[in-house]
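Task card 7
Instruction: Convert sequence to structure tokens.
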Amino acid sequence: MELQIDHKSSIPFHKQAEELIRRLIDEPEYRDGQYLPKEVDLSEQLKISRNTLRQAINTLVTEGLLVRKKGVGTRVQKKKIFSGVSNWLSFSEEMRILGIEIYNFELQIFRHEVSAEVAAFFNIEVSTKVMRLERLRGKKNAPFVYFISEFNPKIPISASENFNRPLYEILETDYGVIALTSKEEISAAAADAFIASKLEIKQGEPILIRKRYVYDINNNPIEYNVGCYRADSFTYTIESKRNI
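Output:
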């Protein structure tokens, strides 16, 4: 297919490139894990800088559509089957609906240098420091989840906030940032020594990892969140209907 950026359009080049690559990876020759053309070739074809092209590719990597292989290139992610729900709730809302009173056993907030994954999500440099909130939460006398939240550096959230309030209430009321969309991944893992000590389980015992990429009403990334749950405390239920 022909790839062409409209240089007269008001749509940013990286957004145009992102849409063109989305179409490209739906082509039969790329659908099942094939490598994209080299960045230098793609940027020349589109007549944009490699940094602009990388911005588009980073978005698709974050969404799980592309995979980067250092020294090899960028390939299309093989198609996976995902189950999901169209509506989502914050942790506080979920617990309120279940009638569970939640306690914060530990809470710390500090500036932290982001990982490559978080940098790609926020489209920032890996050396950038962002605000990181860590909380051990659970029922009375029974912690069952350790949360790590990292925030877009454009949101001036501070350590002086009262984090006993719901997080998205803080973002909306204090900063005018409305959380709208959450892309969620759920996986299983063995607890490392740190998480095991927090959740009061043995190292190596199974935990459930729930990762959320949260966006505002303008589709800007605002929060990267990882929750590590005791396996005996969390069940994720999905109800779906078959098209007939």
